[in-house]
Design goal:
This protein is of the alpha/beta class. About 40% of the residues lie in helices and about 15% in strands. It has a seven-stranded mixed sheet, sandwiched between helices. The longest helix has 20 residues. Bound molecules: pyridoxal-5'-phosphate. The site of pyridoxal-5'-phosphate has 15 residues, from helix 5.
Length: about 400
């Protein structure tokens, strides 16, 4: 559990570096040790029993909690200004814990119509097996969300900025709709990171992360987290994870915590690069369109300005020549690795229609705004001159 008052006296970059530790170091160590142990010995039979009832604090078994994992949970929870956080094996495990830990037979889920591909697939194709129905709605328009609410709607799940279209949802407006009806609002904050957006402070009840992306930031480990604003919800998520087992390993937690320490440096640099790249692409003769929340013509620009501290480092665009032109571009870039995933220090490029969102039908993709020619960039921390020169040479190659 976090002491929220502590965060008030600390800036966000300071919190990313100082929150989440052992409290009392063992040898004065500056880095949190990796407690690579599956189980924890009890000092006595009575103490062991007291840990199980919760009468005494202390670790029992790593699936149920581990000091290294806890340090990461504390750090990210502080950044999101939440009440508690639960680390998971992957981002999808975090999303599964929210959907299956909080919803059941007969419940209705309302979800944004533009989501990470596997999230869309889970909601659309897997949840019905558990008797959970779902509707997808354009969350950029609060009036449509209000219309789509049903008497049995229990949860609204949104992603903003959304993957890959960068659609922006007004989170305070969503919270106004859900709060008074007792509906939970869950936000996938992977693209923005708590550096740029803190949904719990805007009225959300839950935040999920793929820690695999910006929070870790080095494209070398998977992880996820659920951060909540209430103890009651926290208990349900914890119970689900303890029983279904999608929890995090201590070595994974240690690697991700190391990434969290430099979150501010990386996100600030990457988004400064992204804005310059968006401006460059906008005026390039071989580029048809650019979508980036930092561009004033982006439909969500004003909402993004209001609820975010920056526009992030993800953008997408269409080149002249459609899919063939986009393929040519992707095959000729040198500093943008052709790979899915995002949020690492290195820049990546991918093609949503044939890669991350290939699991959807073409009609579903077009409904989400994912056209065949769309190319997505995850802008990294390289020198922006190199990135722009690279894009320029690859664009020149398109006939
Ligand atoms: C990557 C991603 C996920 C899934 O995370 P994994 O760690 O790959 O399981 C969920 N949501 C968004 C927005 C993502 O980018």
């Amino acid at each position: 559990m976090q002491d929220r008052e502590k965060d008030v006296s600390m800036g966000r970059a300071t919190a990313a570096i100082h929150r989440g530790g052992l409290g009392t170091p063992i040898y004065g160590e500056v880095s949190v040790p990796i407690f690579q142990t599956s189980t924890f010995g009890f000092p006595s039979a009575e103490a062991g029993a007291a840990r199980f009832t919760g009468a005494e604090p202390g670790f029992i078994y790593t699936r149920m909690g581990n000091p290294t994992v806890h340090a990461l949970e504390e750090a990210v929870t502080a950044l999101e200004q939440g009440a508690a956080g639960h680390a998971t094996a992957t981002g999808m495990a975090a999303i599964a814990a929210v959907l299956l830990g909080l919803l059941g037979q007969g419940d209705h889920l309302l979800a944004g119509d533009c989501l990470y591909g596997p999230t869309h697939t889970v909601i659309d194709r897997e949840l019905p097996r558990f008797g959970i129905s779902a509707t997808f709605v354009d969350t950029a328009d609060p009036a449509r969300v209000a219309e789509a609410l049903q008497p049995n709607t229990r949860l609204l799940f949104v992603e903003t900025p959304a993957n890959p279209t960068l659609k922006i949802t007004d989170l305070a407006a969503m919270a106004r709709l859900t709060r008074e009806r007792g509906i939970l609002l869950a936000v996938d904050n992977t693209f923005a990171t708590p550096r740029l957006q803190r949904p719990l402070t805007l009225g959300a009840d839950l935040v999920v992360h793929s820690l695999t992306k910006y929070l870790n930031g080095h494209s070398d480990v998977l992880g996820g987290m659920v951060i909540v604003n209430q103890v009651e919800i926290s208990k349900k998520i914890r119970r689900f994870l303890n029983l279904f087992g999608g929890t995090m390993d201590p070595h994974q937690a240690w690697l991700i915590l190391r990434g969290v320490r430099t979150l501010a440096l990386r996100v600030d640099k990457a988004q400064a690069n992204a804005q310059k790249i968006a401006d460059f692409l906008e005026q390039h003769p071989r580029v048809e369109w650019v979508r980036y929340p930092g561009l004033s013509h982006h439909p969500g620009h004003d909402v993004a300005r209001k609820q975010m501290d920056g526009f992030g480092a993800m953008l997408c665009f269409g080149v002249k020549g459609g899919l063939a032109g986009g393929r040519m571009l992707m095959n000729h870039l040198r500093f943008f690795t052709l790979a899915v995933s995002l949020g690492g220090v290195e820049s990546l490029v991918q093609h949503p229609a044939s890669m991350t969102h290939a699991g959807l039908s073409r009609e579903e993709r077009l409904a989400e705004g994912i056209s065949d020619e769309m190319v997505r960039l995850s802008v990294g921390c390289e020198d922006v001159e190199d990135l722009i020169a690279d894009l320029d040479q690859a664009l020149q190659g398109i006939p």
